[in-house]
Specification:
The chain has helices spanning 3-17, 28-32, 39-51, 60-73, 85-96, 124-127, 149-156, 211-224, 242-252, 294-304, 377-387, and strands at 81-83, 98-101, 104-108, 114-119, 135-139, 142-143, 163-169, 176-182, 184-187, 191-196, 199-204, 230-233, 256-262, 268-274, 283-287, 309-312, 320-326, 332-341, 357-358. By secondary structure, it is of the alpha+beta class. It has 3 domains: 3-74, no CATH class; 99-186, Pdz3 Domain, CATH 2.30.42; 188-387, 2-enoyl-CoA Hydratase, Chain A, domain 1 (Alpha-Beta Complex). Strands 3, 4, 5, 6, 7 and 8 form a 6-stranded antiparallel β-sheet that branches. Strands 10-11-12-15-16-19 form a 6-stranded mixed β-sheet, with helices on both faces. The N and C termini lie far apart (69 Å). Residues 1-29 have low confidence and may be disordered.
Length: 388
C-alpha cells in the first residue's frame, strides 16, 4: 500500500475517535489492524510486551497514548499535540482564568528547550523574576525539554503554599539560576484598569472568555471620566481566546477587516469584520517579546489600520491558529489548522509585530506597569506620546 494511503488511514482513525458514537479508546492492534504497512509498530508492541524487563507493569492505555502523541509529534509542530484527559482539563482552566501553580506561560522552543513566553502579571513567577525568553532546564531536580512540555507544566502546578524549585537559564545574562517559587491560587484578572494622572491605562494580561466584555466596560468608564487618552498595555500577554480579541477590535477600530485566516490550501476559511461604530479616543499600545498570538492579532490590526502607535519591542511571532477537538474519553487533539494575516495581508508568524517606536527597558528594572512608571521606559514613552 502506498504512503499516501497510509496517511489517509491514519486520518480516518483520528476522525473515527472524534465522533460521539465511539465510547472507548482503541487498542494498538485495533487501531492498526493487520495492515502490513503498520507491521513494524505491531512487531514493536509484541516485542516490548515479551522482552521488556518490567513487562508486567506495561499499561495498554499508556502504549495507546504514546502512539497518539507520537503521531502528532511527527508533524514537528510545537503547537500541535495529542492531549491526555489531564492536559485537556488544564487547557480548559486557562480559558476560565483560574488554576493553582506559579503562573507562567511556557512553550516548546525550536532549540528543544522549555521556554518562558511570559509570567502572568502579579503571579509568583512574576514576583520571582521569570522573564520572556528564559529557559527552564530543571523542575524539582528533573530535566525537562520541549518534548516534555506538558509534563513540565504539570510539574509546576500543585497546591497553593507548596514550593517548586527551578533551574533557569536567564535570557539576559546567559547564566543559570536556581529559583524556588511558592505556588498560589492563580486568578487571572485579564483586564486591569488604572489611571496615570489624566491618562487612562488598560492592561490586558491574557484573552479569556470574559476579556472582551470586561475591556469594553473599562473603556467606557475611562472615556466617561474624560481621560486624555488610553495606554493599552499588552506586554507579556500570551494570547488566548481569539473571539475576545475580536470584541476589543470591534470596540476601538474603524470599519474593515480585523484578521483573515487561511488554511493549508491558501483558502480563506474565516474573516473577521469590524463595523463602523467604535471609540476613537487617543491611544498608544505597548507590546514586547512576550506578546503572542491573540495579542499580536490585535496589535497587527491596530498598526495596519493606523489606529494607534505601537511602542516597545517586536512581539513573539506566533501567527498560527489551533483547533482543539474533544475526544470521547475526555482527551483531545490540538492541531494547527490555519495561519492568520493582518488587515494588509501580512503574515507575522515567526516575525512578530514591529513597534513604531522601539524602546528598551533598563537591565535592572524590577517590573513593568503603573507601579513601576518611574523606571518603566516603555510606559514613560507612551505617556509622553499621549500628552503631545
Amino acid at each position: 500500500m502506498k504512503k499516501n494511503k497510509i496517511l489517509k488511514i491514519a486520518a480516518v482513525v483520528l476522525l473515527i475517535v472524534t465522533t460521539a458514537f465511539i465510547t472507548r479508546m482503541y487498542t494498538v492492534k485495533e487501531i492498526l489492524g493487520n495492515n502490513r504497512d503498520f507491521g513494524k509498530v505491531i512487531l514493536m508492541e509484541d516485542y516490548l510486551k515479551e522482552n521488556y524487563l518490567y513487562n508486567k507493569e506495561i499499561k495498554e492505555e499508556n502504549l495507546e497514548t504514546g502512539i497518539l502523541k507520537g503521531l502528532v509529534a511527527g508533524l514537528e509542530d510545537p503547537y500541535s499535540q495529542y492531549l491526555t484527559k489531564d492536559e485537556m482539563k488544564k487547557l480548559q482552566e486557562q480559558t476560565t482564568g483560574k488554576f493553582q501553580g506559579i503562573g507562567v506561560i511556557i512553550s516548546p522552543a525550536e532549540d528543544g528547550t522549555v521556554t518562558v513566553i511570559s509570567p502572568i502579571k502579579g503571579s509568583p513567577a512574576d514576583g520571582a523574576g521569570l522573564e520572556s525568553g528564559d529557559k527552564i532546564l530543571k523542575i524539582n531536580g528533573k530535566d525537562f525539554n520541549a518534548e516534555k512540555i506538558e509534563e513540565a507544566s504539570k510539574e509546576m502546578r500543585g497546591e497553593a503554599g507548596s514550593t517548586v524549585d527551578l533551574l533557569v537559564l536567564k535570557k539576559k545574562s546567559l547564566k543559570t539560576e536556581e529559583v524556588s517559587i511558592k505556588r498560589d491560587e492563580i486568578k487571572i484578572d485579564s483586564v486591569i484598569k488604572n489611571k496615570i494622572g489624566d491618562i487612562g491605562y488598560i492592561g490586558i494580561t491574557m484573552f479569556d472568555e470574559d476579556t472582551g466584555k470586561d475591556f469594553v466596560k473599562v473603556l467606557d468608564e475611562l472615556t466617561k471620566e474624560n481621560v486624555k487618552g488610553i495606554i493599552l498595555d499588552m506586554r507579556g500577554n500570551p494570547g488566548g481566546v481569539v473571539d475576545s480579541a475580536v470584541e476589543i477590535g470591534d470596540a476601538i477600530l474603524p470599519k474593515g477587516t480585523f484578521v483573515t485566516l487561511k488554511n493549508n490550501k491558501n483558502e480563506i476559511i474565516d474573516e473577521y469584520k469590524l463595523d463602523e461604530n467604535y471609540n476613537n479616543i487617543k491611544m498608544v499600545v505597548l507590546v514586547n517579546e512576550g506578546s503572542a498570538s491573540a495579542s499580536e492579532i490585535l496589535a497587527g490590526a491596530i498598526s495596519d489600520l493606523h489606529r494607534a502607535k505601537i511602542v516597545g519591542k517586536t512581539t513573539y511571532g506566533k501567527g498560527v491558529v489551533q483547533n482543539v477537538i474533544g475526544l470521547p474519553d475526555g482527551d483531545g487533539l490540538k492541531l494547527t489548522i490555519s495561519e492568520y494575516f493582518t488587515p494588509s495581508g501580512k503574515s507575522i508568524n515567526k516575525k512578530g509585530v514591529k513597534p513604531d517606536v522601539e524602546v528598551e527597558l533598563p537591565e535592572d528594572i524590577k517590573g513593568i506597569g503603573v507601579d513601576y512608571k518611574d523606571t518603566d521606559t516603555q510606559l514613560k514613552k507612551a505617556i509622553e506620546m499621549i500628552e503631545k
